[in-house]
Specification:
One of its GO terms (biological process) is aerobic electron transport chain. The chain has helices at residues 7-20, 34-48, 52-59, and strands at residues 79-80, 85-86, 93-94. A three-stranded antiparallel beta sheet has the order 1-2-3. It has one domain (7-94). Helix content is 35%, strand content 6%. The chain has 106 residues and is mainly alpha-helical. The chain binds iron/sulfur cluster.
Length: 106
């Protein structure tokens, strides 16, 4: 059996270490309506593009659940459980189930 990490695992570990190292991400404001949500997506497209660190910063990533409701990727509509992946096209990154970002949606 081969336990070597694949590319997605390597990238997930890289993101985890960036967050653990204290990367300052924009966890507020949480987009309160669909207009604010769309504007945030537009910002990610225009300012981050495919640059990983900028996606994490503008997305407001954390490596822990957020708020009283303990929101996290696991319950987000964009989370692909079998792949541990964020399927929101503007993000499109590997995640862990107990992470969070401010694009969180159910
Ligand atoms: S949108 Fe944010 S909270 Fe939802 S799965 Fe993607 S990274 Fe996690």
């Amino acid at each position: 059996m081969n336990h070597m990490a694949n590319g997605e695992d390597v990238l997930r570990a890289q993101i985890a270490s960036m967050l653990k190292a204290g990367l300052e991400t924009e966890i507020t404001p949480f987009p309160e309506d669909s207009n604010a949500f769309a504007q945030l997506l537009q910002r990610i497209r225009e300012e981050a593009g495919s640059v990983l660190e900028k996606k994490l910063v503008i997305g407001g990533f954390t490596d822990y659940p957020m708020g009283e409701d303990q929101q996290r990727c696991q319950e987000c509509m964009y989370y692909l459980n079998h792949r541990r992946w964020c399927d929101l096209p503007e993000l499109d990154v590997p995640v862990e189930p107990d992470w969070w970002c401010r694009l969180w949606h159910i």
